[in-house]
Design the sequence.
């Protein structure tokens, strides 16, 4: 009996040690791939539902962009990931090389965050690898009309409460680009973006079906596939990844990577503040 108990306790101890060593949130001695995950609003022309008014040619904005890219370049990324579909990888690489040779030249990504932030940080940091990780998926951004037809009161109650997030009302013209990015990359704002882009739709369903929930699932699916595109890349612990994407995507990457056993999210605030 005593021998059986001793064996059982030994097994429990070994199992506990094994779990603690592999727990994604422990194992601080394990080497991980460092990631700087920056969510932005879309510069220039965008097919997305939400667009922030921003003049990319304004002299003050150009000075601030320059300061931000210099700060982000101190992260010394070896890999930069941008919101471009992998099917355009050849074009992305060609335009990036063109930009590095002559930053004043026009590229197919001129005026977008891919060039203004991604290309310029890469040029300053001498980053050789840049990849597109986007994945397109048709999706209903708003279910307002559908919710009205169902008289879905909770949908509008939740929508109204979500509007109370003060970060959403920060105007980049008033507070500047740096403060705007800082306000967008917080836990609260990440939660807001997941709520308003996806979870809100789960309150708009008919009695027999799950129309809103199915639309919300598409947004989750899109971001999971974008995350899968990252995981398809050949990376190792010597790499330092800079992700520049729409803040809604960044909010999902933050959730996924914070619990991943192979990525380590870097505190980007120390680079921007």
Sequence:
């Amino acid at each position: 009996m005593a021998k059986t108990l001793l064996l059982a306790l030994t097994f429990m101890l070994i199992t506990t040690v094994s779990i603690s060593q592999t727990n994604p949130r422990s194992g601080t001695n394990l080497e991980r791939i460092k990631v700087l995950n920056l969510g932005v609003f879309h510069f220039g022309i965008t097919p997305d539902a939400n667009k922030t008014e921003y003049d990319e040619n304004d002299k003050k904005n150009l000075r601030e962009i320059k300061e931000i890219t210099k700060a982000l370049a101190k992260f010394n990324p070896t890999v930069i990931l941008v919101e471009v579909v992998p099917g355009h990888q050849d074009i992305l690489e060609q335009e990036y090389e063109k930009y590095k040779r002559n930053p004043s030249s026009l590229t197919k990504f001129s005026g977008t965050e891919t060039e203004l932030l991604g290309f310029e940080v890469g040029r300053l940091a001498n980053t050789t690898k840049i990849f597109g990780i986007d994945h397109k998926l048709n999706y209903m951004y708003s279910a307002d009309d559908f919710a009205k037809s169902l008289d879905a009161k909770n949908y509008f109650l939740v929508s109204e409460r979500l509007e109370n997030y003060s970060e959403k009302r920060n105007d980049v013209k008033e507070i500047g680009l740096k403060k705007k990015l800082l306000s967008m990359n917080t836990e609260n704002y990440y939660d807001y973006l997941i709520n308003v882009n996806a979870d809100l739709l789960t309150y708009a369903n008919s009695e027999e079906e799950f129309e809103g929930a199915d639309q919300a699932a598409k947004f989750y699916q899109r971001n999971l596939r974008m995350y899968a595109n990252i995981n398809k890349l050949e990376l190792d612990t010597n790499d330092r990844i800079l992700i520049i994407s729409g803040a809604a995507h960044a909010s999902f990457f933050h959730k996924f990577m914070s619990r991943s056993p192979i990525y380590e999210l870097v505190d980007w605030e120390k680079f921007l503040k």
Q: What stands out?
A: The two ends are 63 Å apart (CA to CA). Strands lie at 33-40, 79-82, 129-132, 240-246, 263-265. The first strand starts at residue 33 and ends at 40. Residues 5-27 have pLDDT under 50 and may be disordered.
